[in-house]
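Researcher: I'd like a candidate sequence for this fold, 278 residues long. If you have to choose between options at a position, lean toward the conservative one.
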């Protein structure tokens, strides 16, 4: 489709636009700002409103799971949220870490950082901070975090291997992550793979489920578990932007599946023989 840097710029521009509009506009399509669906719901997001710490101003309807619900965050933990957006997962994580913990959100979009900081200021939190940075090279020291969370972000990064290595670096020994993301089983039609809007919309940047899980294993993590999985159905009015009627029919009968998964993994004690990370 494009070079890694070009893909990052597509995502940066799209999510800068999204930061400046309301949740209802964002939820009108999988593509966020600019819209590509006439169906007024987000095809990936889940309901956060019943989780403790939920803040409506921070919820832009952009996730594909509820990673903080599964992350086993404890009071006093240091939590890092990758691609923190307006701060939704950070504020829910903060409700679990309490005042003795710390939450760090990382995002590479200035508009999102500004929005998240404004939300934190309104809430009066002094242990939630938002740092500008690329999650392939996090502005965080090694071994800083007890828990890493992320919601529908790694699929937007061209080099997922680098991000997973960075997660390993910033976690403490026996620290863990819980990440919601989009993966594939089967092959997307070529026109979907090449569409910049579908990349920013979290579809065409997704990789095969088996490849995703192997990247986590190769980075040295253990206790790798899929905590939740659901199939994502892309509405026909989105598909018709990129595919003919026959191509849509062929895609639906191909057996290709788009899935939201929430994955847990732990950074083992690297001094333990056989841990695979020494």
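Model: Candidate sequence:
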């Amino acid at each position: 489709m494009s070079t890694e840097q070009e893909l990052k710029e597509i995502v940066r521009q799209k999510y800068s636009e999204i930061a400046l509009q309301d949740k209802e506009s964002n939820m009108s399509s999988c593509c966020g700002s600019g819209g590509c669906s006439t169906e007024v719901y987000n095809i990936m997001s889940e309901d956060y409103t019943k989780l403790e710490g939920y803040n409506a101003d921070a919820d832009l309807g952009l996730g594909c799971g509820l990673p903080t619900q599964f992350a086993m965050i404890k009071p006093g933990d240091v939590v890092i949220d990758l691609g923190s957006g307006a701060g939704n997962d950070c504020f829910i994580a903060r409700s679990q870490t309490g005042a003795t913990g710390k939450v760090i959100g990382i995002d590479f979009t200035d508009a999102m950082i500004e929005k998240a900081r404004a939300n934190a200021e309104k809430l009066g939190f002094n242990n939630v901070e938002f740092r500008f940075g690329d999650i392939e090279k996090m502005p965080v020291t090694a071994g800083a975090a007890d828990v890493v969370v992320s919601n529908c972000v790694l699929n937007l990064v061209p080099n997922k291997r680098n991000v997973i290595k960075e997660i390993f670096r910033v976690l403490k020994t026996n620290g863990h992550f819980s990440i919601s993301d989009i993966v594939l089983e089967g092959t997307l039609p070529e026109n979907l793979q090449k569409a910049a809007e579908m990349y920013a919309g979290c579809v065409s940047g997704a990789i095969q489920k088996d490849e995703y899980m192997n990247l986590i294993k190769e980075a040295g993590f253990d206790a790798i578990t899929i905590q939740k999985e659901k199939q994502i159905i892309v509405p026909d009015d989105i598909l018709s932007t990129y595919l003919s009627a026959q191509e849509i029919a062929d895609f639906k009968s191909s057996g290709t599946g788009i899935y939201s998964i929430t994955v847990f993994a732990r950074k083992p004690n690297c001094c333990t023989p056989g841990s695979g990370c020494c």
